[in-house]
Amino acid sequence: MTVIQGENLTKSYGKTLALDNLTFQIEENKLTGLIGRNGAGKTTLLKLIAGYLKPSRGEINVFSHNPFDSLQVSANIIFIDNHMAFPTAFSLDDILTEVAHYYQNWNAKLAHGLFDYFSFNPKQRHGSLSKGNQSTFNMIIGLAARCPLTIFDEPTSGMDSAVRKDFYRALLKDYLEYPRTIILSSHLLSEVEDILEDILLLRDGTKCLHQSVLELKEYALGLKGPKQTVLERLKGQEILHTEEFAQGSLYAVIKNQGLTSQQFLKHEDLELLPVSLEDLCIYLTGNAKGGIDHVFKQ
Amino acid sequence: MSLNNNLLSIASRQYVYKLKANSSGVYSLIFIQVLALLFSLSGIQSMSSVSETLRVNVKYFSADIIISFTFIWIFFMSLRLTSINSKTMDFTLVTNRLSSHLSNIGLLLTTIIFGSISSSLMGFVLKIIMYFAFDRSQIGVNGFYPVFSDILLGIITTGLYMTLIASMGYLLGILIQIHVLFVVLYPAALFGLEKVNPQMLKLSFDFFASETSPLLFAIRIILSSLIVFSLSCLLSNRMEVRK
């Protein structure tokens, strides 16, 4: 079943175009990563899905409803980011008790288990938590709510690396135990690629690609060798990225179109390198001007 | 996917949540009313006449200040409920715009019940203080000793006025969300109206203040508040949140 469907989705703020004709769909019970550079439109897209914003053009459907101002959609979604607000009168303990009334799948055992594990003080106020702790607490709510559609918008901002690792593990374990549709937007693809199933990559408000992580890992090949040899060998291939090193050596990343590594191994001075997902996404969403090196060459 | 989420059940959940979250509002009400009581102790009006043989000094005491302070309090309470922060709190959890308004209005009506009863009772505190502070013979008896029906009428009237004021405050809050300039425009429009057409403001004042039949008065206030609240709902219906 398709949970989220976007058709020619466009959102502009005044003259700035945040999303540009985005068409995509997200299937039920998938853990999708929403990846993109700063300002690629990740948060805008998530807020459109949550029904906070209205699309300027195009259409979005969540659980076959228009999410804007829909109680039905809101009851089946939880949106976790670091702007969540709770009444100042509530202690953390109160929040866990009160929020539980809103979500029928709420898992109090999980909530309190995580709450104790991260050693929160039950009497503390949400507003007085540090940024990282706020993110951690919000994450607990997001996991325990067990909403059919759970959205995490940069959930790990401010968390230290130990808590981040715990979070990814908790997310994965709970997802396996209770499968649901989860969207996770993140900058740190290297950290989340192991738990994601699909990746939706945004570039300047448009869809760059939407594939499973397994496919994406096969998407590109990296070649390193003397500049001339590499360039000759790569004629006719789609080059995603090139980077020059000292002594006339060149590193190139090409799109893997049914190529096998055997074809390259004949050249003994060519080195075949794996391309990490994070690097690949940077190459795919980068601007064509040759990266940061270009600035310093002038 | 759960389907048993109707508007009223969500709104009532939100209402309970907000009631718990705003229970500290009672303290601000108590504070405001005690403050008003202190102001009332010096009398709201005094009149003295002196002749060669006689010196008469009349002082009026009334709970008017307490009630006006309660009016101001409810105005700001309703304004506060429309703030961005309170909207973000709503949209952190399950809500839509209408359920958020319904729970807000529910909360306001609850505070109005509190406010109108407590302000009427505060009037008694004032009377008790007067009773002990002055010699019995110095007190003009008219209306001093309470009649139950009068108390009830007083509570209901105060409550109805508070409802109207709350609806106005709520509308102002929504307008400010639409554009911050309404902070200035709202009072300016009222003053402007008074300058351009003084009759108009007087008429609308009379419409609410000079009605002698309690039933008609109640109907007028309830209908007007309903209209203003619905206007607020309509205006905010297409508004985006958590931008």
UniProtKB/TrEMBL annotation, chain A:
InterPro entries: AAA+_ATPase, ABC_transporter-like_ATP-bd, ABC_Transporter_VariousFunc, P-loop_NTPase. One of its GO terms (molecular function) is ATP hydrolysis activity. The keyword ATP-binding applies. Gene3D superfamilies: P-loop containing nucleotide triphosphate hydrolases. Residues 4-229 form the ABC transporter domain. It comes from the Bacteria. Keywords: ATP-binding, Nucleotide-binding, Transport. This is ABC transporter ATP-binding protein YtrB. It comes from Desulfosporosinus acididurans. The lineage of its organism: Bacteria, Bacillati, Bacillota, Clostridia, Eubacteriales. The gene is ytrB.
Automatic annotation (TrEMBL), chain B:
The keyword Transmembrane helix applies. The keyword Cell membrane does not apply. Keywords: Membrane, Transmembrane, Transmembrane helix. The chain crosses the membrane at residues 21-41, 61-81, 102-132, 144-164, 171-193, 213-235. This is ABC-2 family transporter protein.
